[in-house]
Amino acid sequence: MNIESKVRNRALAGKLGAACLLSAALNAAAADDWKNPVLDKYPTAAVATSGISVGDNYVTVGQLHSISGTMAISETGSVEAERLAIKQINDMGGVLGRKIKIIQEDGASDWPTFAEKAKKLLVQDKVASVFGCWTSASRKAVLPIFEKENGMLYYPTFYEGLEASKNVIYTGQEATQQILWGLDWAYAQGCRTFYLIGSDYIWPRTSNKIARRHIEEHLKGCKVVGEDYYPLGHTSFGSLINKVKLKKPDCIYSIVVGGSNVSWYKQLHAAGITGESLAKKNKLLLTISTTEDEILGIGGENCEGFYACMKYFQSLGNENNVKFVEAFKDMWGDDSVIGDVTQAAYLGPWLWKATVEKAGSFDIDNVATASEDVEFTGAPEGYVRIADNHHLWSKARIGKMLKNGQFEMIAESDELIEPNPFPEGYK
Amino acid sequence: MQGFAGLSQFSVFLLMALGLAIIFGQMKVINMAHGEFLTAGAYTTVVISDLVTKYCPSLLPYYFIFAIIMAFVVAFLLGYLVEFMLVRHLYHRALDTLLATWGVSMIMQQGFRFIFGGREDSAILPEWLMGSWSPTDTIDIPLNGLFLLGTSIVMTLLVAFLMHRSRWGLNVRATVQNREMANAVGINTKKVDRVTFALGCGIAGIAGAVFTTIGSVSPAAGSLYIVDTFIVVVFGGAGSLLGTVLAAFSIAQSQSILEFFLSGVLAKVWVLAIVVGILMIKPQGLIANRVRK
């Protein structure tokens, strides 16, 4: 598994570069030779009135992720998924008969750079839409610019909520669709005591705040027996594991991120806390921060039998997903791994296409208004619909980690869950 | 059980600090790249682990010992090179060694990123290092923790022997005390410096190899440890091996005990506050070198 991950790393850089060149060539060809069949129905003067970059044969969009710096590895999956979606849309004839041209900018894992590049994309390139960002910090940095310059951002990461904007479509799940549903599931499994663990920054702290409220006020007879944070990159969890052993929580609720994950699961395993040993005592470990991508580094044998609450797993068996995984591997290599956020990024271009076609216009104001109730039946996660608060109606799922680094889905919500970024009483 | 959490933290600190205690304590070189030599050792282990998995999986149970030795060799050679190209021009200018080695650390970090990519990586552990030893039902002592402890004890004894019982250690101490005089009596001080520096780096490499059993490897992994390590060395009294051991022990134990009763973040704050407090009273650290003035 380690070898695979490294082969992938080294291949990625090359592949991305090649893909950029390739798509640039495709775009150029598209703009020149493409005979637009729907021009009569959608003349450019009518579908783009506000000066955004739309021609008779093309429409320009921006892609704003970190290609370099510490976040590059996480965001690479999103870049790949968005490019796959755009390629597929172009192969189908584009949006309103116009092929999509991509202008890619690198946020370089640096929030001021994100802001600067967002401004460049909106003011100078006048793109019709931007797909990008990953961390909440980068989103917060570009948000005022998107609102001031009236742009449209499709943001793919699951996040802490407490935000909604006319200029952003959130294609990942917000807190209530992940945290509350996951905790309810744990409750149904018989968990009554919870130990909250997180890395020390905004997302885990806010998420645990919401989790604590839910446990203490909404789950009957439940309580939080401990809450602990460790700095990003922390590697010794010995004392924490002892505390957990002492408090004997029914549910270890973990939001450890990044490299700390590896130490955390390795040391849990070494201390005798495994999926198997917990299951024997009717206890469990539930995480909202570990996806297929992280397990690649942790090693499946260290986290086998633990649970994660996500809306998407690579192993989902529905028809859309089978096709998606196949297309993704075709484009980006057989050893690629697809995590929750990668799938959410894939939704962005498709939802934008559907919205533009519904609005019959590329103009941001029209797209923003038309977004409500736009649906995407081809979503790998099944089916999604945009709510009036610009978040998605989507399902929540529980996956059990397997030794091979994949998840086995063992539970999913019956209905689509309504997104609620400002849950009552959690603010 | 909790005592063991402290012990394993202690062995982490000690193993990290050993190399630095030699370089900083004996040579007065502030080696900011110490963490990167550790990372070099860790990556050596990962590469060897991958090669073994790919080409001869049957050797998996034994490769780790070999990986430790290779980690030492790689870090030793890198250290030798850095000393030769950079550090030797900067003796007598302690602050400049800080800047120069800081630069080296950044170059090495980017180098790792370039070669291995930015993703967290980890070595495949041999079976005998996984799991735990449970004398009773409630006690689980992690085997990798025991291994860590064992390694750091062996390494400390080795270093102590080298410094205080061998001819070479005598040369090092002589060079540190009075370079001109040491030169005059026929000690090749340049060579002593180079090997001392390289040895410190090599020990960091060993630490890196051993740390793959408890954590992940990434280009910035070393920088996570460097602050703690300097605190241990300075707190112990630079140059004193016994002081380093004492400092590592007291910091590790107090941190893990505080972590147990307070939160993880708060524990760190308290430990640092206590260290600063003690250093204000004893600026030379716990055990000061007796120096003739």
TrEMBL record, chain A:
Signal peptide: 1-30
Gene3D superfamilies xref list: 3.40.50.2300
Keywords, ordered alphabetically: Signal
Matching SUPFAM superfamilies: Periplasmic binding protein-like I
Pfam families in UniProt: Peripla_BP_5 (PF13433)
Keyword rRNA-binding: no
InterPro entries on file: ABC_urea-bd_UrtA (IPR017777), Peripla_BP_I (IPR028082)
Name this protein carries in UniProt: Urea ABC transporter substrate-binding protein
Organism: Pontiella agarivorans
